[in-house]
Each structure stands twice: as C-alpha cells, then as structure tokens.
Write a structure and sequence with these properties.
globular; single chain; 0% strand; mainly alpha
C-alpha cells in the first residue's frame, strides 16, 4: 500500500509544479497521472490482483495451441480474439496485461483529461473509489469500462449511432455493458419531467422485481448462469450497503452544491446527475444479486469527474479548497479502511513488478 500513497504524494508535487502553467500543460499533467497508473498496472506481478494469474494462464493456453473453440461459452469474443492476436505476436504472457492496460487507460485518460475540472482530484478518486484496483483485477470488465467512456463522449456530442456501436463493441469484452444503452434516454429525461420522486419509486419497484429480472437476464445471457448460485443472496452485504452509502453521499453533495450555487448548470453535470442516480439504483438491486455491484460501476465510474466538477461550480475559492480537503480526507479514510478490512477484494495492497 506504500506504493499507492507514494504515487499520490508524487502527483501532488507534480501538481504544485504545473498549477501555474497554461491549460494545455494542464492536459499534459492529466495524461501523466493516468499514464503512471497505466504503467503500474501493466508491469504488475502475477500475484497483484485476484484474477491476474487466471488471465496469464488463459494467454498461456492460447499460446500453447490448445483448442479454444469452447472458450466462447466462457468468455466474450473480443477477449478471446485479443488473446489470440497477442499470442500471435508475443510469447510472454505479460503482454496481455500490457495491452489490456493500454486499452483501459485510453478510455480513462479521455474521461479525466477531457471532462474533469481538477485532474489531481479525479486521479485521487480513481484510486480511492477502487477503479485503479479493478484495472489490476477485472480486466475484461475494465476494458468494457474504457469503451463505455468513449461511448459517453459520443452521447454528449449527440452522436447516437456511434454511441450504440461502441456499446456493442464494449459487449465484446463484457456483455453486461448492454446496460449502458439506458443512457440513450438521458437527454430526454428533462422533457419527460423526470424527477427525484419518480426515480425513487422506480428504484423501489425495480428492487421488488429484481429476482424476475435476473432470471430473464440469464435466459438472454446463459454464459452468466453459473454466477446465479454464487451471487444470489437473501441477506444484505455490508459491502453493498457501504457502496450505497458512498454513492448516495456523492449524489447528495453534488445536488446540494448545484442548488446552493443558484446558477445555470452545464449539460455535462446534468448528465452526470442521472448517472449517479442509476449507480445508486443498481447498487440497491445488487442487495438481491451481488454481482450487479460491478454493473453499477458502468455509471459510478463517472463519479471521478462528477465530484471535482461539482466542487468547481463553487465560486468562493476558500470554500472550494475546504470541500476538496473534506473529499480527500473522507475518501482516503474509505480507501485505507477497505484495504485494511477487506484486502481480499482486489489484492492490490502488496505490489510487485513482473521481472522481480
């Protein structure tokens, strides 16, 4: 865990050096931040991340020439093809982690550099909200996240055709990416007079109907049928409750700041309000089916720009600084608590590089 705190300190020092530079230099700084994360993810040892050894083993199987025809029942076509292409050009299994890191961080770099109003705070939240850990664990899911981010960029620029095409591409790495298609209706929610009360009622209704929804999803995507026995639950996970609390606080703080500022909010933040609502709704559903907490992060990952952009609305600089300090302290405590109490969630606390 020393590595992650060292990276945060180094990035803060770089920020102090760059903060007096021009806007373009700021973008370069944002790319440096995400580039550091990508490099750490790419050169990690096999014991860093719960699933890293499995992904390396899959590559080695492809490279050894075993029959992979049955893989399409276990893995998405895009992931199988990526392994085959990598195995064609490289013998070292580390290449799959490197290529995956490049794909993943292309999307996250776009999100931070193009849409964040505070690169350092976004990069900080990227670590403390667990997305950095996910990039070293759930590779297929994170590659889908990356493509989803590019799809979001097309959506806010009103290119619906490209948005849908990119969602289909993301499904080649994780079929659950189809849930992001619901964002196509986001631009029309205001016209439909969608309100907080309506969202609350729909969330409660969906929670009641979740068991039926899960059965329907399994019929559509039988590839995930084996997850049902392991992830359907009659109890409530403490981890899920913690996630619900965190993203509810994120949404409440964002809405409070927007209301208090009393000025016109730009379109991107309005989009992000709805994405935070969707995150909470799916997390509530995950109390029935715990695997949905990963699906919720298709929307929740945008919190890394939502929080700093809401704080940026505040015109009083001292108040901005105080809010940032509160965010840093709260999420640092959250991150440290997760690593100490639940280190098995991602297994990233102990870091090493593949050549040592």
């Amino acid at each position: 865990m020393v590595l992650y705190f060292s990276v945060l300190v180094i990035m803060l020092l770089i920020k102090k050096v760059c903060e007096h530079f021009n806007y373009k230099t700021g973008k370069i700084y944002g790319l440096i931040l995400m580039g550091i994360y990508g490099l750490i993810s790419a050169v990690r040892a096999s014991y860093v991340g719960n699933d890293t050894r499995n992904y390396l083993s899959i590559f080695n199987e492809v490279n050894s020439g075993v029959d992979t025809s049955g893989w399409y029942n276990r893995f998405e076509a895009g992931f199988v093809l990526l392994n085959k292409v990598c195995a064609f050009f490289f013998d070292n299994s580390q290449c799959i982690l490197i290529i995956a890191a490049i794909i993943i961080y292309m999307g996250f770099s776009l999100l931070v550099v193009k849409y964040s109003k505070d690169y350092w705070l976004s990069a900080f939240l990227f670590i403390t909200l667990g997305y950095f850990g996910s990039t070293m664990n759930a590779i297929r899911l994170c590659m889908a996240y990356s493509i989803i981010i590019i799809a979001y960029d097309r959506l806010v620029n009103n290119n619906i055709k490209a948005f849908i095409l990119l969602i289909l591409m993301a499904m080649l790495f994780h079929k659950t990416a189809i849930v992001f298609l619901i964002c196509a209706i986001v631009p029309y929610l205001k016209k439909l007079r969608f309100s907080f009360k309506i969202w609350l009622i729909l969330t409660i209704l969906a929670y009641v109907l979740t068991p039926l929804i899960v059965k329907l999803m399994i019929k559509i995507f039988p590839i995930y049928e084996y997850y049902v026995d392991n992830y359907m639950t009659n109890g409530v996970s403490l981890g899920i409750l913690l996630y619900i609390f965190v993203w509810t606080m994120i949404l409440c703080i964002g809405l409070y700041i927007q209301k208090k500022c009393g000025k016109e909010i730009d379109k991107n933040i309005k989009y992000l309000n709805y994405l935070m609502m969707l995150t909470i709704s799916i997390l509530v559903l995950s109390m029935h089916f715990t695997l949905l907490d990963r699906v919720a992060q298709y929307f929740g990952l945008f919190s890394i720009i939502y929080v700093p952009n809401c704080i940026n609305i505040v015109e009083n600089r001292k108040m901005q600084y105080m809010l940032k300090c509160v965010v840093v302290v709260c999420f640092l405590v959250y991150f440290v608590g997760i690593q100490l109490l639940r280190p098995e969630w991602n297994r990233i606390a102990t870091y090493g590089v593949f050549w040592m």
